[in-house]
Amino acid sequence: MLHPSESDKAITRKLKMAGENLDIKVLDHVIITENAFYSFADEGIL
């Protein structure tokens, strides 16, 4: 199973904050590899 790095978590927070400033709702941040994917929304982080 994939786990987001601290950098992944930090950029997700920044994207969410930037979206809020522009009245844009960030629905998900997805990390995709050759064999799997990780969804921040599925994990309840967003």
From TrEMBL:
One of its GO terms (molecular function) is metallopeptidase activity. Residues 1-46 form the MPN domain. Keywords: Hydrolase, Metal-binding, Metalloprotease, Protease, Zinc. PANTHER family: DNA REPAIR PROTEIN RADC, UPF0758 PROTEIN YEES-RELATED. This is MPN domain-containing protein. Pfam families: RadC. It comes from the Bacteria. GO terms for biological process: proteolysis. PROSITE patterns: MPN. InterPro entries: MPN (IPR037518), RadC_JAB (IPR025657), UPF0758 (IPR001405).
